[in-house]
Amino acid sequence: MADEVTLLDFWLSPFGMRVKIALAEKEVKYEYSEQNLMNRKSDLLLKMNPVYKKIPVLVHHGKPVCESLIILQYIDAVWKGKAPLLPSDPYERAQSMFWADFIDRKVHDISKKLWTTKGEELEAAKKDFFECLELLERELGEKPYFGGEALGYVDIALLPFSCGFYTYETIGDFSIEARFPKIRAWVDRCLKKESVAKSLAEPEKVHEFILETRKGLGFD
């Protein structure tokens, strides 16, 4: 089974990083296929995701599974024996799905605005970003992870965006550690896990890529 798992991805994608963490948690071996999204999309990607034509795509036994949160659910259902990602309790499961959906709907778009805007738009994006992290920090509370005592679905949904924290802080002139110490401590705690540390992009490389992109947009 392990030999028939392939991940189509792009190194900078937070959505692909989610899948990498989940596969690492489950100790699933897979083939990695880096997709060059800057040029023409590969025939394999277009074949495996003809609807959205986006990464990540998990190919298992030749069958594609698309959209990162759906892929996480699939991984959790197929490889049940180790490191459950979603709670078994229906209510807790629904809450995990709610917060992961919140991250997709809010955090992704707002974090992108932090490096694609300036002036008043940037200040508005910072305000929205702070509101999101405030809600997430409140949900985290005193727990080591969002799901409780073990890394889970919500943690994996949010963690990839932490790769951009240094860039957001630099461009927006603020400190996440000062404003949201529980979120910063949570990131550091998660990074102690090999499954997380080896799956996330290096913040320095993310920073370099985003600065080059900002130059292309005429911001710097």
UniProtKB/TrEMBL annotation:
- Which InterPro entries does the record match to this protein? Glutathione-S-Trfase_C-like, Glutathione-S-Trfase_C_sf, Glutathione_S-Trfase, Glutathione_S-Trfase_N, GST_C_Tau, Omega/Tau-like, Thioredoxin-like_sf
The protein's enzyme class: transferase
Which EC numbers characterise this protein's activity in its record?
2.5.1.18
Looking at the UniProt record for this protein, which Gene Ontology cellular component terms does it annotate, in alphabetical order?
A: cytosol
Domain (GST C-terminal) ranges = 89-209
Where does the record place it?
Cytoplasm, Cytosol
Statement: the UniProt record of this protein carries the keyword Mitochondrion: no
Q: Which Gene3D superfamilies match?
A: 1.20.1050.10, Glutaredoxin (3.40.30.10)
Q: Which residues form a coiled coil?
A: none
Q: Which reaction does it catalyse?
A: RX + glutathione = an S-substituted glutathione + a halide anion + H(+)
Q: Does the keyword RNA-binding apply?
A: no
Protein family: Belongs to the GST superfamily.
What the protein does?
Is involved in the conjugation of reduced glutathione to a wide number of exogenous and endogenous hydrophobic electrophiles.
Q: What is this protein called?
A: Glutathione S-transferase
Q: Which organism is it from?
A: Salix purpurea
